[in-house]
From TrEMBL:
PROSITE patterns: TYR_RECOMBINASE. Pfam families: Phage_int_SAM_3 (PF14659), Phage_integrase (PF00589). SUPFAM superfamilies: DNA breaking-rejoining enzymes. Residues 182-384 form the Tyr recombinase domain. Keywords: DNA integration, DNA recombination, DNA-binding. It comes from the Bacteria. Transmembrane segments: none annotated. CDD domains: INT_ICEBs1_C_like. The keyword Flavoprotein does not apply. GO terms for biological process: DNA integration; DNA recombination. GO terms for molecular function: DNA binding. Belongs to the 'phage' integrase family. This is Site-specific integrase.
């Protein structure tokens, strides 16, 4: 604590210090106060008293924190909580808040919300989630995450002195029925040949070459679409045939400084044919932007005005190309290239650890659970090895 000596106009000497109390649980802002006393010892005592009173008041300087409804409390918590979140996380959590929590609990007075009420609502969410068609209102398999959020909101209410008890703590979470493993779409050898043949028929236009380069890069590296669209030319090391993944693009085309997880930050190698395609694409891009006198801002897959593409816009182009190529499977997205990349590596004998690192998975278990069934050729090889071993025993 920095205590300063202050001389008043009448000549009296006093001591003053600026004291940090903490972060206001209601406003989310840092709180400081000035302490003045006739001695340094008195300043220290007053400072400690101010800090203690701040904490006893629920970490806020507001005397009367009052909310009419649970919606008011939820919005107050959210305004504070979202400050430290990434954009994509904010979008996901706002879906929970505005589509589930507020429509069901928002208009209740806080002191009227009971454990029984919350349990009834959560039970209905679980029943809807277990409904086979999932078309019922408020059907979501994430009801456990929503309940956890309700608990957190009530905990926030206790911290700021609005509620005395947390009725969500005693709610029992119903189990979600196990469903069949979701089929992962990928391009097998025959379909991949068909896909490449279709791309060769496309006209030699700049947007077409951009798409073809993007498709090739995704297939050769297994990158997520947001990671690929966020790449700049400075991320490419042509000498070592590697690229660095350090950013991603959200659904609105905004650059996010950090990708999906910490393990998503990685270096990924690519083959010579992809390298040559990138170099040709760069030459064509430089020519186009030099003619239009617009900067690409060093973005590899830049729009005509030098901005990032929205993943949704490119997704529409992909679906059109897939349909025209004769690939009509449902639920196909850019992840089809990621899944195909993993399948090729698995069936070429590459280990799960290496594939996990290459795909940027946070845990090797994710890779094994998601892609183990794609290694059909390796499974056949194991059977062949065992057959050869049997033969050696009988010879």
């Amino acid at each position: 604590m920095n205590i300063k000596t202050v001389t008043k106009k009448n000549g009296q000497i006093v001591y003053r210090a600026s004291v940090y109390l903490g972060v206001d649980a209601f406003t989310g802002k840092k709180v400081q106060t000035n302490i003045t006393a006739s001695t340094k010892k008195a300043v220290k005592m007053k400072a400690q008293q101010a800090i203690t009173e701040f904490h006893l008041n629920g970490n806020t300087r507001l005397d009367n924190v009052a909310f009419k409804t649970f919606q008011d409390l939820t919005i107050s918590w959210w305004d504070n909580h979202k400050l430290s979140l990434k954009h994509t996380t904010i979008v996901n959590k706002e879906n929970f808040i505005f589509n589930y929590i507020i429509p069901t609990l928002g208009y209740y007075k806080i002191n009227k919300i009971t454990t029984r009420l919350i349990q009834t609502i959560v039970n209905q969410w679980a029943a809807n989630a277990n409904n086979s068609d999932r078309n019922t209102m408020y059907a979501t398999k994430s009801y456990g995450a929503i309940l956890a959020m309700i608990k957190t909101i009530f905990r926030y209410g206790k911290n700021i002195g609005v509620v005395s008890e947390n009725p969500a703590l005693d709610v029992i979470l119903p189990k979600l029925k196990r469903r069949k493993t979701k089929t992962i779409n990928y391009l097998d050898t025959e379909t991949l040949i068909k896909w490449r043949a279709y791309l060769e028929t496309l006209p030699d236009k700049e947007i077409v070459f951009l798409k073809k380069t993007l498709y090739q890069l995704l297939l050769a590296t297994g990158l997520r679409i947001g990671e690929a669209l966020a790449l700049s030319w400075s991320d490419i090391d042509f000498d070592n045939n590697t690229l660095h993944v350090g950013h991603t693009v959200d659904n609105e085309g905004n650059l996010i400084e950090t990708p999906k997880t910490e393990s998503s930050i990685r270096d990924v190698s690519f083959d010579v044919s992809t390298k040559l395609m990138l170099k040709v694409y760069r030459q064509r891009q430089n020519l186009i932007f030099s003619q239009t006198k617009i900067s690409s801002n060093n973005i590899i897959f830049a729009t005509d005005i030098g901005t990032y593409y929205r993943p949704g816009n490119m997704r529409c182009k992909l679906r059109i190309d897939l349909q025209k190529s004769g690939i009509h499977e449902k639920g196909i997205s850019f992840h089809i290239f990621r899944h195909t990349h993993a399948s090729i590596l698995l069936n070429s004998g590459v280990g799960y650890k290496e594939i996990s690192q290459r795909l940027g998975h946070s845990d090797i278990g994710i890779t094994m659970n998601r892609y183990s069934h794609l290694s059909k050729e390796n499974a056949n090889k194991v059977a062949d090895v065992f057959a050869e071993y049997q033969k050696s025993l009988s010879s």
